[in-house]
Amino acid sequence: CTEENNTLDVKDILSRFTTDVIATCAFGIEINSLSKSESEFYQFGMKSMNRNFDILFKLFLLAAFPIFQRYYCFNIMNRSVVEFFTGIIRSTVEYREKNNIFRLDFLDLLIKLRQNQSILEEGESPGDQSDSSRAGKREGLTIEEITAETYLFFSAGFETTANTIMFCLYELACNDRIQDKLYWEVEEVLDNHEGDISYQALQEMTYMDQI
């Protein structure tokens, strides 16, 4: 609860937080759904997570009878959701390619694969030379394939991360001693880093890592 005794929907807040993080890392965009309650990306993200009876029945049939995967009628994704995410990826990829923008994120790796570029770091070996030469002859990823990869990133981390943090906060609320110890560790580390929540600062929060 807030100071005004207004109840906060922690699940909604955490879902928006994870959406913002994944949208930045995987889709290469900043959506700020925490401050924009009507964020279109967040709304479609939630819509994609809904599983009604029809979708669950299709999932059962696909698991029991894989041959049904050949039929378009067994597409388990909502068409509007597919079109939305595909449109975002298409516009982002085209903008980056046109303006030579590199953000060193997940989408950058997929764009390199789309352009048949190597994603190995300098000094790394691709292994057998014949495998490398064969890889160079392959066609690059399509927009649809890039969309599928980024959506997989989103769906795998959206609910799982939000739920994990939510239960962690619940346990902290039930254990004041642990909560206080964690609070003072965070305060001490941030004081040492002038309030900057950097990677190095997070590495020094050993008790938080244990929680």
TrEMBL record:
Instruction: State which residue ranges cross the membrane.
Output: 55-72
* Annotated signal sequence range: none
Question: What are the record keywords, sorted?
Answer: Endoplasmic reticulum, Heme, Iron, Membrane, Metal-binding, Microsome, Monooxygenase, Oxidoreductase, Transmembrane, Transmembrane helix
Highest taxon listed in the record's lineage? Eukaryota
- Subcellular location(s) per record: Endoplasmic reticulum membrane; Microsome membrane
Q: Which cofactor does it need?
A: heme
Q: What Gene Ontology molecular-function terms does this entry list?
A: heme binding; iron ion binding; monooxygenase activity; oxidoreductase activity, acting on paired donors, with incorporation or reduction of molecular oxygen
List the residue ranges forming a coiled coil, or say none: none
Membrane-protein topology: Peripheral membrane protein
* Entry's Gene Ontology cellular component terms: endoplasmic reticulum membrane
Pfam family of the protein (one): p450
Family indicated by similarity: Belongs to the cytochrome P450 family.
Q: What is this protein called?
A: Cytochrome P450
